[in-house]
Automatic annotation (TrEMBL):
<comment type="pathway">
    <text>Amino-acid biosynthesis; L-phenylalanine biosynthesis; phenylpyruvate from prephenate: step 1/1.</text>
</comment>
<comment type="subunit">
    <text>Homodimer.</text>
</comment>
<dbReference type="InterPro" id="IPR008242">
    <property type="entry name" value="Chor_mutase/pphenate_deHydtase"/>
</dbReference>
<protein>
    <recommendedName>
        <fullName>Prephenate dehydratase</fullName>
        <ecNumber>4.2.1.51</ecNumber>
    </recommendedName>
</protein>
<feature type="domain" description="ACT">
    <location>
        <begin position="197"/>
        <end position="274"/>
    </location>
</feature>
<dbReference type="InterPro" id="IPR045865">
    <property type="entry name" value="ACT-like_dom_sf"/>
</dbReference>
<keyword id="KW-0456">Lyase</keyword>
<dbReference type="GO" id="GO:0004664">
    <property type="term" value="F:prephenate dehydratase activity"/>
</dbReference>
<keyword id="KW-0028">Amino-acid biosynthesis</keyword>
<feature type="domain" description="Prephenate dehydratase">
    <location>
        <begin position="4"/>
        <end position="182"/>
    </location>
</feature>
<keyword id="KW-0057">Aromatic amino acid biosynthesis</keyword>
<keyword id="KW-0584">Phenylalanine biosynthesis</keyword>
<dbReference type="InterPro" id="IPR018528">
    <property type="entry name" value="Preph_deHydtase_CS"/>
</dbReference>
<dbReference type="GO" id="GO:0009094">
    <property type="term" value="P:L-phenylalanine biosynthetic process"/>
</dbReference>
<dbReference type="InterPro" id="IPR001086">
    <property type="entry name" value="Preph_deHydtase"/>
</dbReference>
<dbReference type="GO" id="GO:0005737">
    <property type="term" value="C:cytoplasm"/>
</dbReference>
<feature type="site" description="Essential for prephenate dehydratase activity">
    <location>
        <position position="175"/>
    </location>
</feature>
């Protein structure tokens, strides 16, 4: 049996479309799962080699279920990311008219991307969340809802028709998906990489977040995502999911992570992986004093000082 990748299903999700852009899917069995936690647990249980799940969108930010699931439980690591531009279609059973729609469904992350369109076109319609956009389409096929926001490509799969296509409140809305597996050595740096971590702060005091961010700032590491998530230990207790530019093998990134490890009760490394859609030409040169060679020269100098050989 070929190795399998579990993904947020059922068939016809944006997740599946994004997953199929990875060349290695040609030799993998793709297994739709009912939820993000189910896909991740399939990896933890050794039933799937990897899971492919949505993690962030450009309209609403982090997809919290995914961030929360990666922050706790048996550790997993991100190996790849895929960016997909998203527009929605309003899918209905054949013959349904806009005026006949009383209920609509989709994944919760779809709502901020279609809210204005709904306000203008379906102002009195009741929204209910589905496990995924394709699951919403499946529920419309079953007659549970009148319409679903989903990819136009999902229509044929569920015997529906698109009443409207190209629905998107924000121009160029993109969703980011990640391929997640059990921890192993990250792929070698490409020069255009990203490092994801979740960090917990030691205690609540003025400047606590600033102290964490300084570890990146003083080493010239640019941040690409900062998301606070409740730890579940009472109001005001947060951990922070952070994406930083660079690879853990880059000295400035490694040193920033070591700095965090010294001051945080817990640091969870979620992986270093190539940035989607970014080439070497798009990557800024390191800030003065933060290149690998400058870190090495400084450690050599320190060793010489310690030896009295300066
Ligand atoms: O992949 C899907 O279809 C999903 O349900 C997740 C999702 C939600 C909103 C935008 C893109 C992907």
């Amino acid at each position: 049996m070929p190795a399998s990748y579990a993904y947020l299903g059922p068939e016809g999700t944006f997740t599946e479309v994004a997953l199929r852009t990875l060349p290695e899917t040609a030799t993998r069995q793709l297994v739709p799962m009912v939820s993000v936690p189910a896909a991740l647990d399939a990896v933890r249980a050794g039933e799937a080699e990897a899971a492919f799940v949505p993690i962030e969108n450009s309209v609403e930010g982090g997809i919290t279920t995914t961030v929360d699931e990666l922050a706790v439980g048996e550790p997993l690591m991100i190996y790849r990311e895929v960016l997909l531009s998203i527009t929605f279609a309003l899918l209905v059973r054949p013959g349904t008219k806009l005026s006949g729609i009383k209920t609509v469904t989709a994944h919760p992350a779809a709502q901020p991307q279609v809210r204005n369109w709904m306000r203008n076109n379906l102002p009195d319609v009741v929204w209910e969340s589905a496990a995924s956009n394709a699951d919403g389409a499946r529920l419309v096929q079953e007659g549970r809802y009148d319409a679903a926001f989903a990819g136009e490509f999902a229509a044929a799969r569920y015997g529906l028709e698109p009443l409207e296509t190209g629905i998107h409140d924000a121009e160029n809305a993109q969703t980011r998906f990640v391929l997640v597996g059990k921890p192993a050595r990250p792929a070698a740096p490409t020069g255009a990489d990203k490092t994801s971590v979740v960090i917990w702060q030691r205690d609540d005091h003025p400047g606590a977040l600033l102290e964490l961010l300084q570890e990146f700032a003083v080493r010239g590491v640019n941040l690409m995502l900062l998301q606070s998530r409740p730890t579940g230990e009472g109001i005001g207790n947060y951990c922070f999911a952070i994406d930083a530019e660079g690879h853990i093998a880059d000295r400035r990134v490694g040193e920033a992570l070591m700095g965090l490890k010294r001051i945080c009760p817990q640091v969870r490394f979620l992986g270093s992986y190539p940035r989607a859609g970014v080439g070497l030409a798009d990557v800024r040169a390191p800030r003065a004093g933060t290149s690998d060679s400058e870190f090495s020269a400084a450690s050599d100098w320190l060793a010489r000082c310690q030896d009295g050989r300066f």
